[in-house]
Design goal:
The protein has about 110 residues and is mostly helical. It has six helices and no strands. α2 runs antiparallel to α3, α2 packs across α5 and α3 packs parallel to α6.
């Protein structure tokens, strides 16, 4: 159920509130899902608490063929991963290994 937009709530967070990412499977619509994650993650307000879980799901299921056409947005997610903005230090190596295996990038 979509919660009505408050005046102080950015549009990006409204997308998350309405549950739009749940309706766009990352394995099928990787570019669209990635765009939503980047938009939500770079909103002016603090990112939602479940953003790391959403990014993890995306990184485990994205279609590497599609991501070739969305390099800039994918780089934003990877930079956040490397900088430690999304995941604790203990979880980063596992997530990074998953991404490199799925994207075909040599370690």
């Amino acid at each position: 159920m979509c919660v009505p937009r408050r005046a102080d709530q950015p549009n990006a967070l409204q997308l998350l509130t309405c549950g739009l990412p749940q309706h766009i499977p990352p394995a099928v619509y990787s570019i669209s899902h990635l765009g939503l994650l980047v938009t939500i993650g770079t909103a002016t307000a603090p990112p939602p608490a479940d953003l790391p879980a959403r990014v993890s799901l995306f990184l485990a299921t994205f279609d590497a063929r599609q991501i070739r056409y969305a390099g800039k947005n994918f780089s934003i997610i990877l930079e956040s991963l490397v900088r430690g903005n999304l995941f604790p230090v203990s979880g980063r190596p596992v997530v990074f290994a998953t991404v490199t295996r799925r994207s075909g990038t040599p370690c």
